[in-house]
Design a protein that fits this description.
Largest sheet: 3 strands, antiparallel
Number of domains: 1
Distance between the termini: 20 Å
Order of helices and strands: HHHHHHHEEEHHHHHHH
Helix content: over 70%
Strand content: 5-15%
Strand order of the largest sheet: 2-1-3
């Protein structure tokens, strides 16, 4: 029983860390384009993340099998120490990266954990390198390149399609009315909120909503939903043994993962969001919409066909694609991202393998 509870705690910890690091991938363009505060954007992303994670229980079971070790390892070690060590390795790296504001891949970290435990348990020959290359390495390597290229294709029609609509808005204006006494000055009596629709909002308005902004917010929700749909089954795989030991069904496990991802998104998603929103490139609203549409489409399709793409790589590639179109990319930040991506698998592997070796003794 203690081992089962430890597995569930580690699974929830990885889900929390995933939420903290990956919440930014759907909502960073909202913040970068000035369409909402980080807090408001993260609340929207959190709601969509929880919904996507819950939906994962219905459509993404192929990822559960893959990240349980089947195929990645020729003969996954039996017992609770195997998933516990994988979770510890992934959690350790995600916590470090999130603390310093680097967007890294939970998928990469989990693969690194699986490989590290496999090496510690059975040596080099125990790893299913063909599966790792075909089902994991190739999608992870090509997804940012595809994302970057698609942004170049999608951005021009998105800009044209919403350019006209963006000239029209709905505004909420606050007006004050006064009444006059029979003797004495006028006294403010009441305030009224008035909806205005047209091509231009008066300067004194409380808020405005236009077509581009509305679709941009919707696209951020879809991107957050899609990334949770892809990530939740990978995290859930870590807790299957623990759930079975304490009598939790798969449905209960996915609910636990969804809630932990939501809490991580809401409480700790700000640091990486700031990095992607402010430090890579300026993000105009129309280009940010294009990036979100590409991210949501690629990650959503990957989830349906059980391909373990990295939302981090897809969304970051899309944001870099925005910068390339504008010829304004902060390459020092991008180089830091690339370095973090390169070291994710080996660092998680070393951490997981070390934890497994210590527990096995």
């Amino acid at each position: 029983m203690p081992a089962a509870l430890l597995l569930l705690v580690l699974m929830a910890g990885v889900a929390f860390a995933n939420g903290a690091n990956d919440a930014s991938k759907g909502v960073a363009t909202l913040v970068g384009a000035g369409l909402g505060s980080p807090g408001r954007a993260l609340r929207w992303g959190t709601a969509a993340t929880v919904a996507g994670a819950l939906a994962a229980g219905l459509v993404s079971q192929g990822l559960v099998a893959l990240f349980s070790g089947n195929g990645v390892l020729d003969a996954p070690p039996e017992g609770w120490m195997f998933p516990a060590a994988v979770a510890a390795g992934a959690l350790g790296w995600l916590a470090i990266a999130t603390r310093i504001g680097l967007p890294v891949s939970t998928t990469h970290a989990l693969v690194g954990g699986l490989v590290g435990v496999g090496l510690a348990a059975g040596g080099f020959a125990g790893i299913g390198w063909t599966t790792v290359a075909g089902k994991v390495a190739l999608p992870l390597a090509f997804s940012p390149v595809v994302s970057l290229g698609l942004v170049a294709v999608v951005a021009p029609p998105v800009t044209r399609a919403f350019g006209r609509l963006n000239r029209y808005c709905v505004c909420l204006e606050q007006q004050e009315f006064a009444f006059a006494l029979a003797r004495g000055p006028s006294v403010p009596a009441a305030r009224e909120l008035k909806l205005l629709a047209g091509a231009d909002c008066p300067p004194r308005v409380l808020t405005r909503l236009n077509a581009l902004d509305a679709v941009h917010w919707a696209s951020a929700g879809f991107a957050s939903f899609a990334r949770a749909l892809n990530d939740a089954p990978k995290v859930m795989a870590l807790g299957l043994a623990g759930g079975a030991a304490v009598g939790l069904s798969g449905s209960s496990l996915i609910v636990l993962v969804a809630l932990a991802m939501g809490v991580g998104s809401h409480l700790a998603g700000g640091r990486v969001t700031d990095t992607l929103a402010q430090k890579v490139t300026p993000i105009p609203a129309d280009h940010g919409l294009a990036a979100n549409l590409v991210t949501a489409a690629l990650v959503g399709i990957a989830s349906l066909v059980a391909a373990p793409v990295s939302t981090t790589h897809v969304s970051t590639g899309a944001i870099v694609g925005i910068g390339l179109r504008r010829r304004d990319v902060h390459w020092r930040i991008v180089r830091e991202f690339l370095l973090a991506w390169v070291v994710t698998v080996p660092v998680a592997a070393v951490l997981a393998g070390s934890v497994y070796a210590m527990m096995a003794r």
